[in-house]
Write a structure and sequence with these properties.
It is built from 29 helices and two strands. Among the domains are: about 120 residues, Serine Threonine Protein Phosphatase 5, Tetratricopeptide repeat, CATH 1.25.40.20; about 160 residues. A hairpin with a 4-residue loop joins strand 1 and strand 2.
Length: about 550
């Protein structure tokens, strides 16, 4: 359609091709098509000899800049292959005098930024401020591969390492507040691939963010001559990035920092709190387990108190932010996780501190009970509601399975009158046995499940019961309920094969009857899985691992 419109005005071709179609922004068809990532239409326009590729909209952007902002990689690469020098578009700045590379990095267009980087560094005279902006944009927008290239470039790296953005943050300050998942070692490649990588000293299993952090940190240490006083002045302003990483739970970044500068483990804030205090407050178990590797500092942390007289046992007694609780399914499992944390910290504190009062005259147990009062009520409500629902399901199964068990014998007498050959369907005797066994399992297991869930309903929901008894009872009841549902469906399926002369109908009804058990598994399995993990495996997360830091190759 665009080609037809252009060809209809051969005398005014130049005006038509370059006509402004968006009056408010002064954008031409080329701008709009580039912004909409219409590659074929853009290719037709740029190949036209009358097109003006340098036309700017009201913001001062060319179509090339618009394509970059929109992430239209194919279009941007097309511009770079035109007859003009390749670096023409790379040198042509857009709105607010921004270079194309700066635009790509600020909009988070990683692929285009990587394409532009080499030519920009070679051909464009970037001021220090713009270079810093590109670097910080890459970190903010997770373009870590390009940030690594910049740090590895000996010509510009020294300018970037200690550079600060508009909020006075260095690159490491920005990274300290990043998601921990950005740094977590990739486990997808499997154990053998990771072993091979370690033997060959390759870091193929590491995330780009972690590689970038390592490179920056090595250079920071070199720039500060490995003097702790200088290093501390760098990392402590405008906030202490080590403590910030501990708050966020950024274990991998902390491991990299501490591996090359062990003194960082002594960092404290104004309230005399270390990374371990923040790990306890925010429930970051991997950071907490580092206490087993720090020798003397472990004893100091165990005995330390903050400005309000709180020991680490008082701190773990405080309820964490709701976002930390939401990582666990259900209020009951959340409460159990809190109780586990309290128990684990209680094991390592000095006996004299276990019942010591803070400046508010509260023991750790007093603080725990007070802080978790609402969560305890929610845990009781969550478990009772689920138990009540399961009782209803189990009662229905008992109601169905009980009369079915007595009707099997009568149905068995009718089976022998069927005219179907034995080849066409299963043996009647075998069917009778399967029906008897499956109905017995369904009725017995669902009856036991009812009793287990009733015991939950009448429980007192004390902290001790929430830690072990109630979760175990809930897991047992849910497991038995699932088995009884499966047994009932098996019984129904085989009942369809009782000789009736319609084998195809029996097969169809059996398939339909498999739907409820599949749906039940889909709906109940997440709760069962999380409850089993929380009840039987979550305590193993606190098991100490020796020499964790040695796994971070530098």
């Amino acid at each position: 359609m665009g080609r037809m419109i252009i060809d209809q005005h051969p005398q005014n071709r130049h005006e038509v091709v370059n006509a402004v179609i968006m009056r408010s922004t002064m954008e031409t068809a080329l701008h709009v098509a580039a912004g909409a990532n219409q590659a074929e239409f853009v290719e037709m326009l740029v190949n036209d000899k009358d097109i003006d590729l340098t036309f700017r909209d009201t913001n001062g952007n060319t179509a090339f800049c618009t394509a970059i902002a929109a992430g239209a990689t194919r279009i941007a690469e097309k511009f770079l292959t035109l007859t003009k020098p390749r670096d023409y578009f790379i040198k042509t700045r857009g709105g607010q005098n921004m270079s194309p590379l700066y635009i790509a990095s600020s909009f988070g267009q990683a692929q285009i930024a990587s394409v532009l980087y080499k030519d920009t560094i070679s051909n464009v005279d970037l001021e220090a401020g713009e270079l810093f902006g590109i670097f910080f944009n890459c970190i903010h927008n997770d373009i870590y591969d390009l940030a690594i290239k910049m740090v590895e470039d000996e010509d510009i790296a020294p300018k970037l390492i200690l550079a600060r953005d508009t909020t006075n943050e260095t690159a490491l300050h920005i990274m300290s507040r990043k998601r921990p998942s950005d740094f977590t070692v990739n486990q997808v490649q499997g154990i053998w691939s990771q072993v091979s990588s370690r033997i060959s000293r390759r870091s193929s299993t590491e995330m780009p963010a972690l590689i970038l952090a390592k490179n920056i940190w090595k250079r920071v240490l070199e720039e500060n001559d490995h003097q702790y006083s200088k290093i501390r002045s760098t990392i402590s302003y405008p906030f202490n990035l080590v403590l910030e990483a501990a708050k966020v739970g950024n274990f991998d970044l902390l491991a990299v920092l501490i591996r090359l500068c062990p003194d960082l483990i002594w960092e404290k804030d104004d309230a005399n709190q270390t990374i371990f205090h923040f790990a306890i407050l925010n429930r970051h178990v991997k950071i907490f387990k580092l206490m087993h590797e720090i020798g003397l500092l472990k004893s100091l942390v165990q005995l330390s108190e903050d400005e309000n007289g709180n020991s680490i046992l008082h701190l773990v007694a405080k309820i964490p932010h709701q976002s930390r609780l939401n990582s666990i399914l259900g209020a009951a499992l959340q409460m159990r996780h809190e109780l586990l944390w309290f128990q684990e910290v209680e094991k390592i504190v000095a006996p004299s501190l276990r019942n010591k009062r803070n400046f508010d005259h509260k023991t750790p147990n007093d603080v725990f009970t007070e802080e978790h009062m609402k969560l305890t009520k929610n845990a009781e409500k969550w478990m009772k509601e689920n138990a009540n629902t399961c009782i209803i399901v189990a009662t229905i199964i008992v109601t169905v399975a009980f009369p079915a068990a007595f009707s099997i014998q009568g149905e068995d007498g009718n089976k022998h009158s069927s005219s179907l050959s034995p080849v066409s369907q299963p043996s009647s005797d075998h069917i009778s046995i399967i029906l008897l066994v499956s109905n017995t399992i369904a009725m017995s297991f669902s009856s036991i499940a009812v009793m287990l869930f009733l015991s939950i309903m009448i429980s007192r929901f004390t902290e001790k019961e929430l830690l072990w008894t109630l979760p175990c009872t809930f897991v047992a009841g849910l497991s038995l309920l699932f088995i009884s549902v499966a047994a009932m469906m098996v019984s129904f399926c085989f009942a369809s094969f009782i000789p009736n002369g319609f084998v195809r109908i029996a097969i169809f009804t059996s398939c339909v009857q498999l739907v409820p058990i599949t749906l039940f598994l889909y709906l109940v399995y997440p709760v069962l899985r999380d409850t089993v993990h929380s009840t039987f495996f979550s305590q193993h997360e606190f098991n100490p691992r020796n020499n964790v830091l040695q796994y971070y190759e530098m």
